[in-house]
Amino acid sequence: SESHGEAVQISFTPHLIPMSRGMLSTMYVTLAPDATVEDARRILSEKYADEKFVHVLPEGVAPHTRHVRGSNLALISVHPDRIKGRMIVMCAIDNLVKGASGQALQNMNLLCGLPEHTGLMQAPMFP
């Protein structure tokens, strides 16, 4: 990747759960030889510190779809993998808000000079 300076391998595992809304994704990432899970969590926390809709969770906390239901939030967590030199990154979103339509509205807000969160703070709930 561009930020890493060389190619990285990522395994992406979306979880299909019998629910009407929400998506939980799991990514398995190979760390650089000198990198740690703590480094990755710190970098993500710094990167998204000022983002209203992205929250990096504290160590040991996993995201749940029930915590993003009806919102434009993305909850991200970083965990050590049982395989040495790898980490697990998890993300929960409400795919009916944070999906393509929410992204389109968020981008339109930015293009039109509106606050990024306009129309995204109290999404209607169905189902």
Automatic annotation (TrEMBL):
InterPro entries: AGPR (IPR050085), AGPR_dimerisation_dom (IPR058924). This is N-acetyl-gamma-glutamyl-phosphate reductase dimerisation domain-containing protein. Coiled coil: none annotated. Residues 4-95 form the N-acetyl-gamma-glutamyl-phosphate reductase dimerisation domain. It comes from Pycnococcus provasolii.
